[in-house]
Amino acid sequence: MGQNDILFERAQKTIPGGVNSPVRAFRQVGGTPRFVSKANGPYFWDAENTRYIDLIMSWGPMIVGHAHPEVVQAVQRAAETSFSYGAPTEGEIELAERICELMPSVEQVRMVSSGTEATMSALRLARGYTGRDLIIKFEGCYHGHADSLLVKAGSGLLTFADSTQNAPSSGGVPQDLVKHTLVLPYNDVSALEEVFAKQGDQVAAVILEPIAGNMNLIRPTPEFLSAMRTLTNQHGSVLIYDEVMTGFRVALGGAQSLQGIVPDLTCLGKVMGGGMPMAAFGGKKEIMSKLAPLGNVYQAGTLSGNPVAVAAGLKTLEIVSRPGFYECLTGQTEKLMMGFKQAADKAGVPFAVDSVGGMFGLYFANEIPNSFEAVTKTDIEAFKKFFHAMLDEGVYLAPSAYEAGFTSIAHDNAVLDAIIAAAEKSFQKI
User: Fold this and answer.
1) Are 175 and 285 found together in one domain?
2) Whole domain around residue 47: which residue ranges?
3) Does 270 participate in catalysis according to the annotation?
């Protein structure tokens, strides 16, 4: 029994399922999770000191590579003056100013500690601002584990537009809450138009991942985005862009800068904390002024704007703002996708790829899917085989066919060559 197995067995005694976040458990792919002992650049080492090329990068935040010396130094310097004050600091203002500068749609911003906290707070704010209860989310998009977001559509297409038929997607979520959440298919313009025609004056907010990353990488169509912005404007609903994953990851100005959409509220996380627990939500001053202490929408947190996380975030944003950063990151990710696709074609395996900035999708299908339903029809069994073959070759992919992958600026040509060589061997084994 290897060290990873020993640790996993031990972990299961005191931690439910042996993990502190479900996807780490390897449930979809089978096998034993790798317990990480250290990481540097594009690599991590497990408990058995086996080195892997990391293609999840902590699910996105390690965009400059693990343990980047400048970020480490910034964190060390901040830690020397204490880890938390529960009082304001100048660093928080600097980070807020930088976010507002990089994302013009964000006029004011409130710091929190996690993506779930950001989306949960943004929804409460949207409801408080509009005086409405109903929210719209899209099938396959994940916005954290707040109650009103853990909702799935009931069976059958008709129920997409009927929240009374929806069901919680988690135990412990009251059916009473579910009726306030509508779940629509991603990229379905007519479903969106139908709901707004019937219930537009009841919709507090529409929340979406502007490039989905939790059902693998799925891009929205321009028509879908345009309809959403137009309809929310017409009906006085708040458009919330959940850029926890895409913010500063697909481009310096986030997905909204690529799509030319100006959302009312934006949720951020991952990259803005440089890997430390840090997130934020922000947007129009008119909406943000409804937050306590100015308004009656309550939100608070002792660790919000934590000085050590702020230091990591500021330094990371400084590095990604340097000339050529995103051009290089995007180019390397595209090069990697081309390598994957050529290796699959050579092996005769039906396979498609897509990427935006430093975020990518791999699909065992003939074409890139455009909805959750399309993703479920890809060859999940082939993915499982590929995942384990790649793991054996020292490449760590997301342990689920429903998750996007991530590169970093540390994934140089030598690293890409090693990944592509591993893929060539792995596709032969499917």
Assistant:
1) yes
2) 3-67+323-428
3) yes
